[in-house]
Amino acid sequence: MTPTPTDCPTMLTDTENDSTNPEFGHILSERLSRRDMLKGSFGAAATLYFGSSSLLLSASGETRAATGALKLNFAAVNKTLDDKVTLAQGYSYRIISSTGDPLAEGIPAYSNNGSERAESFNKRVGDHHDGMHFFGLGKNGLWSPLASDRGLLCVNHESITAGFLHPTGATIVDEKRPNDNEVLKEMLAIGMSIAEVKKVGQSYTLIQNSRFNRRITSMTDMEITGPAARSPLMITKYSVTGTRTRGTIGNCANGHTPWGTYLTCEENWAYFFRRPAADDSKRSARELASLKRYGVKGNSLSLWATVQPDTADNRFGRWDASINGTSSDGSDDYRNGPNTFGWVVEIDPFNPDSTPKKRTALGRFAHEGAWPGLVIAGQPLVWYMGCDSRHEYIYKYVSNAVWDPADAKRGAAAGDKYLNDGTLYVARFNADGSGDWLELTYGRNGIDRDNSYYSFSDQADVLINARLAADARGATKMDRPEWGAVNPKNGEVYMTLTYNPSRALDKVDAANPRFYNDPKKGVAQKGNANGHIIRWAEHDAKGSATKFQWDVFLFAARSSADPVNVNISGLTADNDFSSPDGLWFARSGLLWVETDDHAYTDASNCMLLAAIPGKVGDGSTKSIVNSDNGQQSTATTHVGAAPREDSLRRFLVGPVDCEITGLAETPDGRALFVNIQHPGETTTGKNFNIADPSTYLSHWPQGGTARPRSSTIVITRDDGGPIGADLT
Ligand code: FEO
Ligand code: CA
Ligand code: CA
Ligand code: CA
After folding, report:
1. Which of 198, 142, 150 is nearest to 351 (CA)?
2. Could you tell me the mean pLDDT of each successive run of 10 residues in the chain, 728 residues long?
3. Less crowded by CB within 10 Å, the N or C end of the chain?
4. How far is CA 508 from its chain centroid?
5. How far is it, in rounded angstroms, from Cα 93 to Cα 674?
């Protein structure tokens, strides 16, 4: 059992979807014409807002895609195990901020020896930088969508590396945390940060004394909004009305809105909670079904709740999700605490005093991120979302209100209109290349009290238990959905399926078709060890469509792998990769792909690649033969056109044992912000000795004998040109 929260790779097995969702026997063969699916037009192009790229061409919210053909403007970098950032020639980077850097005037530089008191992290950059977004900042202090020289950089802090955060690592005695300062520091080092950045010369720098700088942590007061607010399932001692909660945790990827607010998404929140096994006997069958499905299983022994004595505000005890009080409704304990996490949270970066809002209409699961579809006047707004655990699902949210460009200037006030009232869907990928968005609404399609998976009581219950509703609808179990991105040129949606060692030989399907062995240093790695990137085109190019057409954009693999059944996309030494995670479409239409890899790290540290994508349906249908110990299975899938040397190249390789994640672009496309998360992450294994720096696997970015630190870097081209590709 991990004593403190760590991040996805070590946590995911506990939330593996072991539901009896019938998807494997449920693949439809609806014959939808691919031509029909793709013929949708963009006649309304003049009123598009390209959500992925944040490019607004006018203050009225009307936008246009960049036009012209793309040409990669760099030579591929080689795979490397060097403990540094290796970047394409002709490009440079500098560090914007690292874990612990000061975010206010008068805060001293970070010692990087763990000596700071916990409270100082209220004014310091958090740990494990993840999802990120750049909002242009105007002279009037408001959002200026075209501003590139000055902006607010919103950065998620997903988790912590406790070994490097404290003087001598995390103190654990008899499976308890006796040091309250250590635990509080961990609680304040997660969440997210907002910092002003400014262009200085060719590059950017953080403004330490900006009035906009802010930390949001697991201690920050938040409002619960949307259909699940005031539900009995949301009642805690902190908010007996079920309308508030404290903090945001597991902030993985992100999203944004066309009114200039940031969305931070709660992924591995379940592991922060303690729930001793004895609590099971106090729970109803429905409660147990919900707790199990979300990984707050009996015997979840996270240690934050073990600090004694607790404070008057229960800052430690609130992480104990068992029934400790005598009330019948949970108003005197935190039995419902986990229900207040697992949401998309909206934050107004332009108002440092604003209260973040949890947007329950978008459903509760292990949210990776929330990526906006194209924004078109008069049409609903759409956000695409992945639930990142093995065999979990892809979702989308469609607002009931249609987009009014006048709302682009309303700032956070627009949030209630579009994010509290809409429809949640989950995806089913059919064998013939079509797909269906399955509605998750109480009272429809059997989502009601009589459902055999779970007896739903109302829409709040459906949203709080969205995974159970998705099970009941027969959604497709995917190979761990991570980031999504929407192509600003045509609205097609790309989503990484990072990898899935639990994909069984006899449980492959069209959209998750591979089972293979990818041995690493002689050790077998079976299942879908390298992941793939799926993409889809909505019917009639409408984000609100309930049908779509899909194919696999890229299958990740070693370039040396079997070219027929494993390296299906024909990757070469210049562009092979494993475990795609972060995605970002530049406004030019260039697609960036980041990796969070564990399977190919014998050959390279994690990396960033640039791709010029085609479109859904530009490839072919293929039969894949999977085998293991003399057993075989086949899957027929749909794969996009293979990448060429000039359409997919490695751009950057990070330092040892990091994850490359988070991507933000200035509106002019001439600066790219990238996060280097937890270099030296697995240092804290059994050979780790904090007193012996030679046991650290990385010393990046400071080098020498320093402890490694998560960091945001900004990349610029030495001649000041656009990053990654030129428009010709
Ligand atoms: Fe936090 Fe799924 O990456
Ligand atoms: Ca990570
Ligand atoms: Ca991720
Ligand atoms: Ca990952």
Report:
1. 142
2. 36 60 33 26 29 35 64 98 98 98 98 98 98 97 97 98 93 95 98 98 97 98 98 98 98 98 98 95 97 90 94 97 98 98 98 98 98 97 98 98 96 94 98 98 98 96 98 98 97 98 98 98 97 98 97 98 98 98 96 97 98 98 97 98 97 98 97 97 78 94 97 98 95
3. C
4. 24
5. 10
Q: What is the CA radius of gyration of the chain?
A: 24
Using CA atoms, how far apart are residues 532 and 646, in angstroms rounded to an integer? 20
pLDDT value of residue 17 = 85
Residue whose token pair is 């650290």: 696
Q: Say which ligand is closest to the CA of 388.
A: 1
3-state secondary structure of 36: helix
CA distance 552 to 637: 8
- Enumerate residues 6+ apart whose C-beta is below 8 A from 173: none
Work out the angle between the directed axes of helices 285-293 and 466-473 (0-180°, nearest 10): 90
Neighbouring residues of 145: CB distance < 8 A, sequence distance ≥ 6: 54, 55, 56, 136, 260, 408, 667
Q: Report which ligand 1 atom has the smallest distance to the Cα of 268.
A: 1
Q: Mention every residue, 6+ apart, whose C-beta is less than 8 A from residue 214.
A: 103, 193, 194, 349, 352
Helix (H) or strand (E) holding 118: none
The closest alpha carbon to 276, from 294, 300, 296, belongs to: 300
Q: Nearest ligand to the C-alpha of residue 387?
A: 1
Report residues whose beta carbon is within 6 angstroms of any ligand 1 atom. 7-8, 158, 252, 267, 368, 388, 482
Cα–Cα distance, 486 to 53 (Å, whole number): 9
Of the candidates 147, 151, 165, the residue with the CA atom closest to the CA atom of residue 96: 151
What kind and span of H or E run contains 97? strand 91-98
| Protein residue with least CA distance to atom 1, ligand 1 | 252
Q: Which residues surround ligand 4, an ion (CB under 5 A)?
A: 8, 498, 581, 596
Pull the structure tokens for residue 124. Answer: 């310091």
CA nearest to 613, candidates 564, 553, 546: 553
Structure tokens at 626: 């999977």
Which ligand sits nearest to residue 659's alpha carbon?
2
E strands present in 173-260: 191-200, 203-206, 214-216, 221-225, 244-246, 251-256
3-class secondary-structure state, position 437: strand
Say what the pTM is. 0.93
CB-CB contact of 366 with 470 (8 Å) = no
